[in-house]
Amino acid sequence: MTGVEEKGARTRAAAGPGTGSLVATGLTKSFPLSRDLLGRPASRVRAVDGVDLEVTAGTTVGVVGESGSGKSTLGRLVSLLERPDTGSVVLDGVDATHLRGRALAALRTRLQVVFQDPFGSLDPTKSVGHAVAEPLLVHGRIGRSGMAAAAADLLAGVGLDPGLAGRFPEQLSGGQRQRVCIARALALEPWLLVADEPTSALDLSTRSEILNLLLGLQRDTGQSILLVSHDFATVQHLAHRVAVMYLGRIVEEGPTEEVVGNPLHPYTRALLSAVPVPDPSAQRARRRIVLHGDVPNPADPPSGCRFRTRCREAMPSCSTIDPALAEIGPAHRVACLLHAEAGTPVSTSATPRSTT
């Protein structure tokens, strides 16, 4: 073992033994929409509203939903970039919700983030080599003299020419920049990557390259990934499990093959109907489910089931019962009154909102 490896091993040991799991329970997060004359929040939007999520070692979990569903906020909460209003995030058996300082920094080495915009997440004044090796320098695993060698190894690991280390972000293509961001995230050898829309800013061919890179990392090294995306096809390609979000809540969750093959929630069925299939005959024969109406105001969601205003299968009870996630099959959960009556009755003092 080299001196660098020994120093890295000592750093990881100081952070604790690790369990290779992330468990988020009851997460909520709200943001102020307006403030009064004294600067106090007058109205708030709850971006994440009571979400449970688990990622275990060696698995990829996909979080999918429309824009505004709260999936990116959920990604920031579980990656410890935002603190939840309520709930907990337990990483490697350690409750990280209220950690500060060195304890939080040590735990964060086990979880790294790949952001949506690779150019915006890189410092334009620093070279590519500095960008990928800097985490090792900051955490004391290498000295400045070892940055060049470390950068070359990390760039090669994501399929880039080590000679790019001397270039700056503006001199790279979008796909190269995203590979640099992935190399930087892998520098500290985290067991979990949180990838927030990692391909949405790229063209189709480059997107395929990045997805195959992530798939290869998962297959070859057992890298765990929490993939946040609005594209069900991307999640279907990479994830072992998928969680479908709508207006701040998970409405269906389970093994990807089970959810895709037997979608139970009307919203999940609508999302899957929009995913094209490669067979033209099969594509023409498919029935597209078109959702009518706009997404409700997240600051004032409908009573009962939040999807009922756009659901063609809504029943009268959907406006009076807020459905809870119920297990319908093996590890397959859905929040829909079509499949289970479990839920919270809406207060009779509240006036049900219109379904139109």
Q: How would you describe this protein?
A:
Among the domains are: 115-189, no CATH class; 266-345, no CATH class. The chain is 30% helix and 24% strand. The protein has eleven helices and 14 strands. The strands form three sheets. An eight-stranded mixed sheet has the order 6-7-8-3-9-10-13-12, with helices on both faces. It has a four-stranded antiparallel sheet with strand order 2-1-4-5. The chain is globular and about 70 Å long. The protein starts with a helix and ends in an 11-residue tail after the last strand. Residues 1-17 and 348-356 have low confidence and may be disordered. Belongs to the ABC transporter superfamily. InterPro entries: AAA+_ATPase, ABC_transp_ATP-bind, ABC_transporter-like_ATP-bd, ABC_transporter-like_CS, Oligopep_ABC_C, P-loop_NTPase. This is ABC transporter domain-containing protein. Keywords: ATP-binding, Nucleotide-binding, Transport.
Topology (SSEs and partners):
Layout: H1 3-14, E1 21-35, E2 41-56, E3 60-64, H2 71-78, E4 86-91, E5 94-95, H3 101-108, E6 111-114, H4 128-138, H5 147-157, H6 174-186, E7 192-196, H7 204-221, E8 224-229, H8 232-238, E9 241-246, E10 249-255, H9 256-261, H10 266-273, H11 280-285, E11 321-323, E12 326-329, E13 332-334, E14 343-345
Parallel strand pairs: 3-8, 3-9, 6-7, 7-8
Antiparallel strand pairs: 1-2, 1-4, 4-5, 9-10, 10-13, 11-14, 12-13
Helix pairs in contact: 4-5, 4-6, 6-7
Protein name: ABC transporter domain-containing protein
Family: Belongs to the ABC transporter superfamily.
Region (Disordered): 1-21
